[in-house]
Amino acid sequence: MQASPRVSRGGFVVIKLLVNGIVCLLVRKNLKWKDVNLIGGHEKERDQNSLTRAAYRELWEEVPSIRNMADLSLQPLTSEVRYGPVLSRSVGQETNYEVQFFLLKINGNPTNLLNNLGARTLNVLIPQEEILKNENGRVSGLILFLNRILPEGIAGIPLSSPSNLNPTGRWADRRHDQLEFAWS
Questions:
Q1: Most CB atoms within 10 A, among 15, 29, 123, 138?
Q2: What is the DSSP string of 4-39?
Q3: Domains in the chain and their CATH numbers?
Q4: What is the DSSP secondary-structure string of 149-168?
């Protein structure tokens, strides 16, 4: 008799920004799997069985530049949904993921979110249309799942902020074809 798939719970955050006139998602590289995923991750005991808390904690851990920003909130995009069973590459067994997706809403000026990320961050800004095309297969299954379950897909998710950002430093003055999707 085969054991039922393991269960893993997680909270994930969509950060959708208009940068130099281009709708982009701030996502995170996974160097081990050579793909990108949403900001977020597995629920821990300290999250007290709350995927909202897990999403906030992961946001603070993975996007430290957000810690100095005021007037942020997470708005649920979905209720808890099941993704799977899929083979978990990290544990090598079939896993059902119980996940919830949130939109980061930024009511203040979000420019510092990008300006203060730092050169060594695993966070990358990718045009929404590149994520949806997924021509190189480097978009995580979780992002593709979210795109399938939302009535209007990821394209229907509102922006995190209405501002058209013109960041300095790493993403300053980049055209559409210059925004990152590199694995250097």
A1: 15
A2: PPEEEEEEEEE-EEEETTEEEEEEEEETTTTEEE-E
A3: 6-178 (3.90.79.10)
A4: HSTTTGGGSPPS-S-EE---
Burial (CB count within 10 angstroms: exposed 0-12, middle 13-18, buried 19+), residue 156: exposed
Cα 41 to Cα 57: distance, rounded to the nearest angstrom: 9
Contact 40, 10 (CB under 8 A): yes
The mean of the pLDDT values for the chain is 88
Q: Could you check whether the bond before residue 85 is cis, i.e. omega within 30 degrees of 0?
A: yes
Span 87-97, pLDDT tens digits: 887 777 899 99
Which value, in Å, is the radius of gyration of the alpha carbons in the chain?
A: 16
SS3 category, 102: strand
Position 177 confidence tier, pLDDT thresholds 50, 70, 90: very low
CA distance 114 to 116: 6
Residue 33: CB atoms within 10 Å: 12
CA–CA separation, 122 and 82 (whole Å):
27
Tokens representing 57?
Answer: 């904690």
